[in-house]
Amino acid sequence: MKIITYIMLSLLLVSVFACSRSGKKEKEPNNSFATAGDISLDARFTGFMDTPNDRDFYRLIVDKPGVIDVNCSGVKGINLAVKVWKGEEEPRLLKWLDDNRKSSPERLANLGVIPGTYYFEVLQSDRDTRKASSESAYELELKSREAISEESEPNDSKDEADSIHQDREITGFYSPAYNRLNNNTENLHREEDWFVVDVVLGSDMPALITVSLSGVTEINAILSLYDADDNLIATADNGGAGEQETITGAGIQKSGSYYIVVASKGYTVNNDEPYTLKVAMLERDSGVEMEKNDDFDSANGIVNNVITGKINSRKDRDLFLYTVARPSAFRIELRPADDMDTICSIYSKDNEKIIDINNSGSGRKEVYPNFFTDKDFYIEVSMRSRDSLPTGEYVLSITPLEETEGMEREPNNDTPQANGIKGNAISGFTSFRGDKDYFRLSYDSRVKERFEIRSGRGGEIRVSVTDPLGYIIKTVDVKGDKKAIFSEMIDKKGYILVESLTESYDYPYTINLRGGE
Amino acid sequence: MRGVPLAALCMAALLIAGCATTGTTGVKTITYKKPDAYNFRFIGLDTEIDDPSRDRRSYYKIFIDKSEEGRTTTGLESQEKSCDAMLQPNRHLVTVEKWVLDQKTGRYIKLNNIEQPKPNFVYFDLPEDRIVVIEMKTLGDGTSEFVIDYECR
Q: Does A492 contact chain B (CB < 8 Å)?
């Protein structure tokens, strides 16, 4: 009798334990929308993959808007998937959760629902061999909560984008891991959260939009901004896992809808820690760069000779157009942020590169002291791709210089480009590291010329005199304010070659001639 | 070594006769050019170069009485390269230094002493109202000979 009682008690305990783990059980057949079993929120339902091709449908009637955390536990050795459908008569597939892994749960942290009928279909993924499992049950749980300024899945495309308002935060999840409905070949099956912000410009002045995305543990995020015509305006992909991304000062030229896309790289997922997204707008100041200005067509005009900007990604390049009123030499100076090593490039109006200026290190200004031109030109600011992203802004200034007789005109880096000499004095700058300046000497007869040379303060130059063919006959080095004087025969024609040993971008060198007397 | 400049001077004396012209009366008249911008001219060249690949671009640096006076024009070693100067009438020492173009660097470099013309100097007298022309010819073995003349009209 004791034994029977003991067995009875044991069976009762096992029974109670089993009920408490698995909650309500599915009722087969439930392999179609018509035979779907009803389920309710905040309860657990268990089911089995009775056959390899078994599909278990559950129907949920929603009576008020909210958010549902969909969680289907894993079954050992089986790769489960969950499809979420909406609609009673003609259900529409909303989400297809399939993380492509055996034995792992499927989770969608924030399914946005409104009153109506939803179906949850549990099936096996087509990525692995399907098999029956009548012993191990899955557990489907739908936890409900109120939506408080958060994304509402599905928001996987432009048409489904959630609205976001300026200066208000919205939260979202990098969930689920995969979106099987995303068939974009460029980002196949990538889960994307789309948001739309409506911009109304009060005046003709463009605006600057800044989009900030907080960091989430283990998520390496990528943030993108598109216009209504699907043109990519800006991308932020600078931080690593767990780090924030920001699109700073992207230019908005006209009123309309703009789309923000949040995604994780490498199909990483975090169902528990939300991200925060925020959008801020500013009226554009003409002295501040406006992204997107990554190509010649979208280059920002420089209005008052000065503009500030920021490098937003390692691949970011900022282009500016300077309009030349009259032929002149220009001093181009780029003051970077303290943690920035900039490259400043000058392009002609025809988009041909003239020169790269990259003489100084991190936090030090780049200068082209005397760029002469009579045509509009472009300036490109970028950074070395291997460096870390700078935090601060740079300042680019262009200063027209007064015309000075005898001032060199770049480019004069070889004998065909040599500057002619008017008068008996010439001056110039070491415009970049390793700069060479050629000046052409020309006389009616063979003369002995006297050269009086001063290097710019802080600089050191090497001055050579050549024969008529440009071969060097005599060379002297001149440092700082010290003066060097020498004489050399000039066979009617010759060249002065000035080479920089230590650059001085602020003070010019000078060479005085006697004029062949 | 002393004998070489001496021989050159002797040769010069003979060559002075080259300025002489014979008039209708049969009297020889010597007409020398008078100094204007210069009264000294140096001409240097190599005479036995027959391979263009060995004919380097070059010039001579000229020292008068051990002080640098200037340099000749530039040209191939086989070409005449000259330099003019205005000197005080006196006995003078002219010394030359040969420089050749280093094509790799685009720069003229001084030849090693062993490759310099031998001899690389000559003494000469510069009289009033005469222009002294010194021609230095360097042979294939590096030896040089000097011819000293007065410039004629």
A: no
Please check whether residue A7 lies inside any domain of the structure.
no
Q: Considering A230, A260, A283, which residue would you say is the last residue of a domain?
A: A283
Residue A193 has pLDDT above 60, yes or no: yes
Number of domains into which chain A is organized: 4
Q: Is B117 helix (H, G, I), strand (E, B) or coil?
A: coil
Asked if A179 and A221 sit in the same domain, the reply is yes
The verdict on A445 and A507 lying in the same domain is yes
CATH of the domain at B133: 2.60.40
Q: Which is it for strands B40-46 and B132-138: parallel, antiparallel or unpaired?
A: parallel
Q: Which residues of A touch B74 (CB under 8 A)?
A: 467-469, 471, 473, 491
Instruction: Please indicate, yes or no, whether residues A169 and A236 belong to a single structural domain of this protein.
Output: yes
Does the N-terminal peptide bond of residue A327 adopt cis geometry, omega within 30 degrees of 0?
no
Domain match, A307 and A235 both? no
Q: Which of A41-50, A323-332, B124-133 has the highest mean pLDDT?
A: B124-133
Q: Respond yes or no on whether the N-terminal peptide bond of residue A2 is cis (omega within 30° of 0).
A: no
Q: Is A470 on the interface with B (CB under 8 A)?
A: yes
**A314 CB-contact burial (10 Å; exposed 0-12 / middle 13-18 / buried 19+):** middle
Q: Which residues of B touch A446 (CB under 8 A)?
A: 73, 84
| Tens digits of residue pLDDT in A463-512 | 999 999 999 999 999 998 789 999 999 999 999 999 999 888 888 999 99
Lowest mean pLDDT among A109-118, A278-287, A393-402, B94-103: A278-287
- Residue A200: pLDDT band with limits 50, 70, 90: confident
Partners of residue A489 in chain B, C-beta under 8 Å: 70-71, 83
pLDDT in tens, B8-26: 444 444 444 456 666 666 6
Residues A225 and A263 in one domain: yes
